[in-house]
Amino acid sequence: MRPSVVLLLAVVLAAPAAAQPTDPATLDPASKAALLSALRGAHALFDQGAFDEALVGYDRAFGLARLADVQYRRALCLERLDRAGEAIEALRSYLELSPEARNRGRIEREIARLTATVESHKYARLQVISHPAGVEVRLGGPSGERLGTTPLDARVVPGVQVLYLSAPGFLPSSQRVLLQVGESAVVELPLAREAIAAPPVVAPDKGRTWGWVLFGTGGALAATAGVLGYLTAARIEEANDYDRGDPAHDRAGLDDLQAPINGLETGFWVLGGAAVVALSAGAVLVWTSPTEAPAAVGLGPGGARLDVRF
Q: Fewer Cβ within 10 Å of end Cβ, the chain: N or C?
């Protein structure tokens, strides 16, 4: 038989035997004694919480006899030493050595739990709290990966990450954070409200101001001129009545009545002219000066509204 065929046959025949548990009855007395000593020492160390030393004892015992219970005890030590991947392998070996185990369902659930633990240790846990809540969280910037909204609890790739928080009506905020594998980080960020721009203050136009002043002055002058006009007419009527009433009235008395008329009439024309000038100038200044909104029409629940600014 060729050597390669012999080697292949040896491997095939040895493979099923490797998965079979050792029968303690087949051990010689010295091996049995060594196995019992290793197990007793490992059990005592496990009860004391010395899981590293206990694992060494169980490894020695499993080297002497491939027993399913020893693999289970190894898995317990490995889990307590945070070596979840090796604990999974030990539990799988336990099921191979004891395929009819009554606790098979529980062991499979334990393997699933430890597998999830191993997967979670590939990431970092990130918790983000913001004021207010409901803020969008992204990695890297406004166009980065969206993690969700606050309060946030997510798994993130470890390393230096930049958190970018944004919400309508608030100023965006960002923070650099270092995330370690298998560790948790809590970040709390307040967001400031956006400043509402105040409407521009429009300084009053001086031309319009002087226009209104001239309007008022012209009105006062017109009113005064009206009074003088009334007094002038009254004096003229009084002089006419005096002259028509009695021809014997002396000329001096008539002159006394007519003397104020000239002054009143002059004042009427002067003030009236000044009033016309003031009103005209005021009108020109008011209507030619720029305004922010000379007229505006608005529609609302109450109907149409016309606002005119002078």
A: N
How many domains in the chain? 3
CA–CA dist 111, 283 (Å, integer): 95
> In the chain, which ranges are E strands?
124-131, 136-139, 145-149, 152-156, 159-166, 173-179, 184-190, 295-300, 303-308
Beta-bridge partner residues of 124: 156
Pairing mode of beta strands 173-179, 124-131: unpaired
Residues 241, 217 within the same domain? yes
Instruction: List the one residue out of 120, 105, 110 whose CA is nearest residue 90.
Output: 110
The contacts of residue 167 (CB under 8 Å, 6+ apart) are 132, 134, 135, 136, 191
Can you tell me the mean pLDDT for 124-133?
A: 88
| Residues 136, 113 within the same domain | no
- Predicted TM-score of the model (pTM): 0.42
